[in-house]
Amino acid sequence: MMIADGVRAIWCRELKVDDIAAEDDFFTLGGQSVIMFRIQDAFIEELGVEVPMDQMFLNPTVASISAYIESLDPVAP
Predict the structure, then answer these.
(1) Domains delineated in the chain
(2) pLDDT > 70? residue 74
(3) What pTM was estimated for this model as a whole?
């Protein structure tokens, strides 16, 4: 699975929307801190990466956060 597909699936589930474009903004879609925390947990559980909160704010689209995640090393099991 590509990272962007995993990010998109997590965002769709947590934001309760059917589809999200690569450049849709998390906050415009109704994202807020509680959802952001759930997404952070899902990134660890499902993608094996830990994304700091500041990076969530700096990368508010599927495309930008996916590029950030691809630059990380996986979390050790």
Answers:
(1) 3-70 (1.10.1200.10)
(2) no
(3) 0.90
